[in-house]
Amino acid sequence: MNLAHTTVLLWVWGSLQAFEIVEKENIFQRTPCPAFLMFDNAAYLEDMSFELPCRCKPEEVSTVVWYYQKHLGSDHTRVLTDFDGRVLTEESQVRVGSDMLVRFSIRMFSLLVFRAQPEDSGLYFCGTRKGDYFYAYDVDVQSGEGMVATFKDQGQEPFADEHRGNLHIFTTFWEWTPCDRCGVRGEQWRIGLCYLQSPGLSPRYRRTLPDVVSCGSQAVPQKLRAQAREHTPELLVQSCVVPCEKEEVREGLVAILSYVSKVGSRPWLPQVPIQFHQQRLGQGLIISCPGARPEHAVAWDKDRQYFYRTQYLRGVNRSMRVFIDHGNHLHIRFTQLSDRGIYYCWRQGVRVAGLRLGVTARGQNRASFSDPETRSAVQLTLIGYLVITAVFVSIHLCRCCCYLSRCWPNYSP
Hints:
Blueprint: H1 2-30, E1 39-45, E2 50-52, E3 65-69, E4 77-80, E5 104-107, E6 110-113, E7 122-127, E8 133-142, E9 148-151, E10 162-164, E11 167-173, E12 185-197, E13 205-206, E14 212-214, H2 222-227, E15 234-241, H3 251-260, E16 274-280, E17 285-287, E18 298-302, E19 305-307, H4 309-312, E20 322-324, E21 330-332, E22 341-347, E23 350-360, H5 372-407
Parallel strand pairs: 1-8, 1-13, 9-15, 16-23
Antiparallel strand pairs: 2-6, 3-4, 3-7, 5-6, 7-8, 10-11, 11-12, 12-14, 12-15, 17-21, 18-19, 18-22, 20-21, 22-23
GO cellular component, one term: membrane
Membrane topology: Single-pass type I membrane protein
Family: Belongs to the FAM187 family.
């Protein structure tokens, strides 16, 4: 009887799997590939991760290959595949500044690019190993270097649209994020990217509105792109208050801890996972929130002190020692003893992690070449020795030349 049940279950599972494959193939059957290759315009902010689905392909193609070109018709084309149709890359393993060849993944015919950089802007093609293209994207990754923050609570308004003849430059804002904290006053924001409207755009690029594309799109001529370069992305911030959802109390765990603990005392039970980190006095530190992205609502607290973006956002004050960048990272410049404590991270309105920071004096840690300050000190010392040596040699060469010019006999009449 067990063997019969197993056989039936395997048959049902195989039928469901076959039905799933057929259903996925039918999706591509219902979406015919265009006879003339067009480019879908898509804009993202720096350090965001995005997905480009291959929306159409012939039925006989079982795996796809993605190609990348900086400009249309460029001789240099990157092949984004392992020639098996997939690349196993996890976003948590990607480091900032890594090359694009180690920041992408192909899953179910879709291309995933992690921590996109402005250098990743360009054209992405979905095709085969032979170089046949089915679908294409025009990706514009806008830099957050000069990003401008606007605080609604202070009465500030976003930048006004710019009109330069037939050129219309404006900001398109995304949806509001959820409130970054619950139970206390929090903040929410929306990201705005640069877009323009002009009648002189290339017809090969698809757009949701007539003659409207992102400012860095390949459809924009070089002259118009230079005019829109000064219109940077924007960040609109406002306050919010939302209640916290009730969590189930782990009564069994609390009872056990109370039993094994001393009478009249209860051990400290952290509500979120907490990691310990030891930092040298005077060094810089960058803290990231686990699983957070630039488009997520992320907040930072130190014990009971709340770091609001109206005071701690990067660019609000140039002399800030502690600030939050546009990628939701917490920066501490020149660590001090007063920085000791527990730093909590909120993601999408829920407190998810904590970092207990300890600060030690300089004398307790040995210098190491893995330390950026040590490497900088060694480089400066070597450069100083080289400069002194060059000056010393130059002085002696000049003296030798002067000596030879005086001692050399003069045969002129």
